[in-house]
Amino acid sequence: MSAPVVEVSDLRVELEGSGVDIVDEIALQIHAGEVLGLVGESGSGKTTVGMALLGHVRRGGKVGGGAVAVDGRDVSALGDDELRRLRGGVVAYIPQDPGTALNPALRIGTQLAEVLEAHASSWSEEERRQRVREALAEVALPTDGVFLRRYPHQLSGGQQQRVAIAMAFANRPKVIVCDEPTTGLDVTTQARVLETVRDLCRSHQVAALYVTHDLAVVAELADRVAVMYAGRIVESGAREAIFSAPRHPYTRRLLRAVPDIAGKRTVVGIPGRAALPGSRPEGCFFHPRCPLADDESRSAFPPVTELGGGHMVRCFHHAEAVKHAEPEGAGQLGPRTVGEELVLTVRDLDAHYGASHALFRIDLDVHREECLALVGESGSGKTTLARSVSGLHSDYTGQVRLRDDPLPEAARRRSREARKEIQYIFQNPYASLNPRRTIGQTIGRQLQLFYPGARADTGRRVAECLERVALSSSAASRFPDQLSGGERQRVAIARALAAQPSVLICDEVTSALDVSVQAAIIELLGELRRDMGLSLLFITHDLALIRTIADRVAVMNKGRIVEQGSVDGILTAPSAEYTRELLANTPSIEVALGHAPPTAAST
Amino acid sequence: MSDQTADRALDLTLEQPPTLIEAAPARARFALVADALRLGRTRVGLGIVTVLVLIALVGPLVAPYSPTEFVGIPNSPPSSDAMFGTDALGRDVLSRFLHGGRTVLWLSAAATLLGIVVGVVVGLIAAYARNWLDDVLMRSNDVLLAFPQIIFVLLAVSAIGPKLWLIVLTVGLTHAPRVARVIRGAALEVVERDFVKSAEVVGEARWRIVFGEVLPNVTSPLLVEVGLRMTYSIGLVAGISFLGFGLQPPDADWGLMINENRLSLTVQPWSVVLPVIAIGFLTVGTNLVTDGLSRALAGIDRRADS
What we know:
The complex is a heterodimer. Chain A is an alpha/beta fold. Chain B has one domain (39-65, 87-305): MetI-like (MetI-like fold). Helices cover 71% and strands 0% of the residues of chain B. Chain B has helices at 2-13, 31-37, 40-62, 93-99, 101-129, 132-145, 149-160, 164-191, 194-201, 206-214, 219-242, 254-261, 270-305. Chain B is built from 13 helices and no strands. The A-B interface holds A 58-60, 271-273, 291-294, 320, 324-325, 327-328, 330, 390-392, 411-412, 414, 416, 419-420, 423-424, 426-428, 431-437, 445-446, 449-450, 470-472, 474-475, 478-479, 481-483, 486-487, 490, 495, 499, 520 and B 4-5, 8-9, 11-13, 15-20, 22, 24, 27, 193-195, 197-198, 200-204, 213, 216-217, 219, 306.
């Protein structure tokens, strides 16, 4: 095999001053034409590693050791000028958010030409113009003058990302670093962008490092995969090895946490929380959350074990891990018994935002103890619908009925009983809890509002609410910024439950969370629903999630419900063209590995 | 070994509450103040202010003479009887200085408090309303902002008379639109956050949302604003006293002392220099504290970004 284009050995990046390591002992090789998927949850250091390939360390950090060699050159030994030539020329970067990466004041054509000017200044004007067109054609964008004269804000998110990709590939780099380039995109757009990246890497023999938290995307795109946990690569190997025969307990648990559109199984969260730089435990960083932890893994970080075929794992117990039975999730698959009684009815609902018409003739039913998933891409109107139902958005016509009572539009005009019965959980737990109030005050206020009682009793009642979402009662004295994202979302759920509602509206409640945390929240919602007889209106953009939680699905597109039916029905035999497209574009580990047939739509 | 493994597996499948790390650092509720106090300028400012406040509060108790008592020949230089000499009417400069700080301080503090309270209420209501009410409040604000503060206050005292309550009222009210504008700006971002929506959806009363949810999230800019307004208040109040619209003779007051003795500045400088230094240092002190607070505030923002 030829020499790798990228060779990272024993890389350490640490915080300036304190010397606390952000990542350490990172070793990677990427060959020409190969895509390496670097997977990790937030705070695992994956972006730090990606940036290191560009010779960049975030402010406040510095390279503490090791070497990054790109195309045979040691990046850390390069001066500023050489680094500038390296970046964009030899190593290119595709950012997460093209909306902020493109200069809003420059036309598309000008920005692309700039990249070429910086690295191929000997070219003539005509050659450059030619190359700009080529670059755009490669990413399937129009090459005419009209398009070149556009500004970034005149393009859609997907088009912006394509422009960013075109810029990255324009100079024929040898290495591409992709930092979650599809995170902000809808699945349909994501699928096309991924295809473009894959094709370009293949055809130009580019070595790509694809940094992401999304295992399904990696399964579809990468040749090899490296899994990061708390600043270390804990397992790496060929795609098939990692997904079909993972050896590290963390990888195994992580895969169990990923919902899969084709896999008929529940998701299981990973208990505990990831260690942050500076507070990582002795020994193996995963041991506090690991079922196989023993004195050995508590005392030393496991060395690299070669398993053959390029599969490497850092675990003392990788052999046992395979035999170890994975826990079954608390969630439940398949249709559940659902009450006959209609709890929530939406009839003929049309909503407006000022002059724009956001929702058209929506009809929905939610039965007792039923979970109805509302699926759609961004801009489909699913959040507007949820807000109309809850009374947050009052500019609508049509009817929302709670059991048999029609509700007034605005929450403020609704009866206290109605407000108690319908509770709303927001997408971002970082924003939905008042940072200046303790958790106890936040939940206590909700209790006082709906169940005014003795103040002396509040503490005990708050503790009960916290216990219901598996938080210890000591959380009551904490402020939101002392909790992790998952813990905050649990608090938000506890607050909603404190009202003892019959309907919970969950607005993308897991989209701001890591997969392992998402799985735990999904499990929790499933349990609560069974135990408390709750109905759920579960809003999500992620079709893969619905099998693990929902009974029925309503698919939304452009303000209309295009299809409604049982989960199995929709997933196996979708009737609407739009649903088929969504299904086909939702990445799936099972499908990518050939373990499951492609979802209905792609046939 | 295998038994152990099985046991541990069982542990995990049982419901494991995500336990909170008990050793999490206790969050300082007044993180801004703590951060500000780490800066040298804040400490110096606080020291200056403390000394001058002590002089104003304790001064009357330790003053050797009554402020209105004639103790010697007018404009006599410092002597063993009068440490800083006598003023233009033959009263003890030190005693008048020690008595004269209270009015400046309490007038400024009261005016600041009034301005802050009115400004916060107006600013928060405007930010939360975001409708015609916002427009009405903020456009009236703009009109009020068009008047220089000192002109407005002088207009009022010359029309109604040199009343202390009038000074507090007018200085306070002219602060209000300035405070309102800052608070509205800070609150605009807060009212858009989900926890405010969350309070709306459960039907929390509007006043509770404004003062219970939004206000605690603008305390940092508010604190800076308090310091800033205090600095301006001191300047204004002292200025008005100097112009003769504040405390009336023969009562002692720093601003008034400057006015009374300015003609004999070359003969007996102490009766002017002492109050000038006091007023000067007081404003510098409050300004240093304010500066420290606003620097700490910017510092907090920077840390949140990184």
